[in-house]
Design brief:
By secondary structure, this protein is α/β, with parallel strands linked by helices. Helix content is about 35%, strand content about 20%.
């Protein structure tokens, strides 16, 4: 797996590509939680079959002080400014996706967005509101933002593949948030895959195994189809 730091759509990101230069691969967009970074998500990619997929892992546009550690990143602030900051980050993330769709010749139908905590909120926000469906969306320990506005969109787009994971011991974002997300999606006619795990606000080998299985299921056909394709190695 080759790791390169790049920038597109107004966001810095890590590009984790298969070792063979120029080989096309379906794409996984990894989104970190509050106070974390692209490097944190990159450390988890080794659990998710890195030689089968290409990973694009952006840093959120906001900085968060993690004293005594170095500053991390966030996707939005809480409180009154949440709506504005979340909307701004969503626009940046869509711009990044548009850019990499062209750069890596990979349509949304061959991309999965995987997010944890704030990253899970962004994955659902951007993925569910996209006019063109992604191959899949994964939300770990997250929630739906403004779920009351999603109903009409989801009823018109029931071909969304969604995996929801949440720890029953999570005291940062309680499991009720994912239960509500599941109920909203099911009420709109979707069939999300849903798992509760005996965890706090974190990921585990068990949760990553579920994510890997989901990725291989929704992207494997594209992987076989794309294995014969070659693209220029971006610089």
């Amino acid at each position: 797996m080759r790791k390169t730091r790049r920038r597109a759509g107004g966001l810095e990101y890590l590009d984790l590509a298969p070792d063979q230069p120029g080989t096309w691969a379906p794409l996984v967009i990894g989104l970190h939680g509050r106070g974390a970074s692209a490097e944190d998500v990159a450390a988890m990619a080794a659990w998710l079959n890195p030689e089968t997929f290409r990973f694009v892992i952006p840093n959120g546009p906001l900085e968060v002080e993690n004293a005594p550690w170095e500053a991390g990143h966030a996707w939005y602030v809480l409180g009154r400014a949440q709506a504005t900051s979340l909307t701004q980050s969503s626009e940046l993330l869509v711009s990044l996706i548009d850019a990499i769709e062209t750069q890596y010749q990979t349509p949304r139908s061959q991309m999965v967005i995987v997010g944890f905590s704030q990253g899970a909120v962004m994955a659902l926000e951007v993925g569910l509101r996209s006019a063109e469906p992604f191959a899949g969306l994964v939300a770990m320990s997250g929630y739906l933002y403004a779920p009351e506005t999603l109903g009409p969109l989801l009823r018109a787009s029931q071909d969304r593949q969604v995996l929801l994971l949440h720890g029953t011991y999570d005291d940062v974002i309680t499991v009720d948030a994912s239960r509500l997300a599941r109920d909203v999606l099911e009420a709109a006619g979707l069939e999300p895959e849903y798992h509760e795990l005996p965890l706090g606000h974190r990921v585990s080998p068990q949760s990553l195994a579920l994510v890997r299985s989901f990725l291989e299921r929704v992207l494997r056909p594209a992987s076989r189809q794309g294995s014969r394709l070659k693209i220029p190695d971006s610089t």
